Inverse folding.
């Protein structure tokens, strides 16, 4: 037995899926299904998604969060996902890392939002050691006081998911689709998007990030890579996802309602 | 909050008193919901222990009235900042009423988890479901032991 094999003895198994450019809707659908129907631990790394897409949290309201005229004009897809948290614009410059775990997979970890968030920051501290002033700040991953990673979670009776969208790079024009959110972390201090976020590519190469992430996961789990095709055949095609792509009609209705309310408030 | 006059020190001090579910409550320890019998209905909510660990609740996903619920299975969710957490029913039956107040005031789950923060009322299909739940004393002890482990 090699030294690394010896180290892995006793660690829980985690299956690793590595994708490149898979559509974010497909990723979210798979995650939700694995959370609800699998009994195994999973890590999914999706290196970029194919088209720019807006992804809101479970309670996201398009009229409050998005500049809908631009979104509709540019035909940007809008998704409402199954996890909590805020709104992101994702594209080929976004790297996604997801952990789906049984509640006892990490010894001593209570399956609640803050303990899971803290544990994730310990894992990523290993990833970013030596590459920047990394920390977890009010649920965001930051270098200094600039956000580069947004987190969200979903917790069921016996399992949890923690997923992150990392801004390896982004298009400034895409950030313009987002309004300043009403609910924002205190450290944001009313900065607009471009002053608040930073690009990971200014700190570390993309392939180094993915490799170091897998290495960090190996300190907690015995990692086994699996192929996407093999997984898809085992999934139940009847599973009902709560993650939804909003229709053009829904976005137009939200835009209309927003204009109507604005008109009403001006006339009062 | 409770204001207490300390006669020997001639001072007042404010104490935070944790909300307590009535002794007639039952508890699902594996997912931290409570249930209280009210006439023909069972009122369901999440416990003070749960809301304390979840953080500020910003949204509650409610079922429709008329929906079926199954003991131990999810019927809705609460969102707290970055996380959604399933709410599981401690009893089986049919939802007869949901707490619509939570649509505009989800924080009721935090400030009054056992009273105004109730989530659904259920017409129970089997009162025997209560036999598998904990009473108040057992649940309190369970939570203390769980917190002590971490």
């Amino acid at each position: 037995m090699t030294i690394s094999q010896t180290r892995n003895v006793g660690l829980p198994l985690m299956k690793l899926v590595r994708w490149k450019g898979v559509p974010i809707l497909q990723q979210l659908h798979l995650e939700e299904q694995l959370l609800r129907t699998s009994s195994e631990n999973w890590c999914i790394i999706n290196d970029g998604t194919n088209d720019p897409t807006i992804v809101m949290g479970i309670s996201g309201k398009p009229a409050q969060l998005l500049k809908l005229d631009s979104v509709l004009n540019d035909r940007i897809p809008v998704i409402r996902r199954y996890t909590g948290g805020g709104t992101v614009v994702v594209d080929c410059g976004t790297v996604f890392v997801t952990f789906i775990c049984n509640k006892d997979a990490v010894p001593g970890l209570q399956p609640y939002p803050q303990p899971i968030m803290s544990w994730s920051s310990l894992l990523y501290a290993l990833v970013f050691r030596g590459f920047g002033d990394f920390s977890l700040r009010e649920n965001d991953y930051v270098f200094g006081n600039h956000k580069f990673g947004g987190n969200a979670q979903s917790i069921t009776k016996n399992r949890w998911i923690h997923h992150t969208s990392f801004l390896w790079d982004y298009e400034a024009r895409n950030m313009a689709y987002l309004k300043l959110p009403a609910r924002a972390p205190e450290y944001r201090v009313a900065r607009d998007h471009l002053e608040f976020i930073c690009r990971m590519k200014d700190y570390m190469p993309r392939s180094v990030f993915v490799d170091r992430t897998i290495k960090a996961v190996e300190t907690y789990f015995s990692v086994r890579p699996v192929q996407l095709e093999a997984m898809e055949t085992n999934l139940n095609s009847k599973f009902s996802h709560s993650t939804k792509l909003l229709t053009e009609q829904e976005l137009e209705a939200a835009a209309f309602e927003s204009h109507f309310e604005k008109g009403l408030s001006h006339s009062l | 909050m409770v204001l207490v006059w300390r006669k020997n020190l001639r001072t007042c001090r404010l104490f935070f008193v944790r909300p307590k579910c009535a002794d007639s409550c039952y508890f699902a320890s594996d997912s931290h919901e409570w249930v209280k019998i009210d006439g023909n209905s069972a009122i369901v909510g999440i416990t003070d222990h749960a809301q304390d660990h979840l953080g500020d609740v910003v949204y509650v996903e409610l079922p429709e009235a008329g929906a079926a619920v199954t003991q131990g299975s999810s019927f809705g969710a609460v969102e707290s900042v970055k996380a959604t957490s399933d709410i599981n029913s401690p009893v089986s039956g049919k939802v007869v009423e949901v707490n619509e107040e939570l649509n505009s005031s989800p924080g009721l789950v935090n400030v009054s988890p056992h009273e105004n923060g109730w989530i659904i009322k259920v017409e129970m299909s089997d009162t025997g479901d209560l036999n598998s739940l904990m009473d108040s004393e057992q649940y309190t002890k369970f939570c203390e032991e769980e917190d002590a482990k971490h």
Q: What stands out?
A: Chain A touches chain B at residues 57-59, 82-86, 108-110, 112-117, 139, 151-157, 183 (CB under 8 Å). Chain A is about 35% helix and 25% strand.
